[in-house]
Design brief:
It holds the Pfam family HD. This is bis(5'-nucleosyl)-tetraphosphatase (symmetrical). It comes from Anaerococcus porci. It is globular, with a radius of gyration of 16 Å. The protein has a single domain (4-184), classed as Orthogonal Bundle (Hypothetical protein af1432), CATH 1.10.3210. It has helices at 4-33, 39-48, 56-62, 71-74, 77-91, 98-105, 116-127, 136-145, 147-164, 171-184. The protein has 10 helices and no strands. It is mainly alpha-helical. Bound molecules: fe (ii) ion (FE2) (2 copies).
Amino acid sequence: MFNLDEYKDKLIDNIGIKRFNHCLRVRDFALKLNKRLDNYKIETAAILHDCAKYNEKYYLDKYKNYCNFDKEILENKAVIHAFLGKIIAEKEYNINDEEILNAIKYHTTGRVNMTELEKIIFLADACEEKRNYQGVEEIRNLAFKDLDKAVLKTLDGNIKSLIDRGLIIFPLTILARNYLLKEKNG
Ligand SMILES: [Fe+2]
Ligand SMILES: [Fe+2]
């Protein structure tokens, strides 16, 4: 069982106090969104979702035997910390719950047929109380009413923003968005 007290210093040392506080806010928002899942899973995934951030090079080297990432992932800063985060949560923080690990892995890109835990962590990361971008309040409100609609709106916003900034859209994000759109329209 993950115990924050045991790992707090290590996590702060790894990601810094600012990012750690973001993780606490993600946890708080995710707990508010939670209706029926185990709070332990929510808290653990939220606290650890960015555990690989800022140390990608170090961890990629340390766990090179486990990191079979293709170039597309390695070169995508936003994606690599999430995919690598799954491995670091397992190896460095002793998490072995696949649902928690996948919520960490897909917190940036989303994926087709996300679990409720994945949706909650994805949204809490996008909407925690200090997030401040145009439309965030609308997504926040939507998240309490309909997780799928809120995830879809967030993915749409992310895709638009990536296009505006001339950045690569990771294919999983497009697949996740199309999947939700089809679901919504039956
Ligand atoms: Fe992240
Ligand atoms: Fe985050």
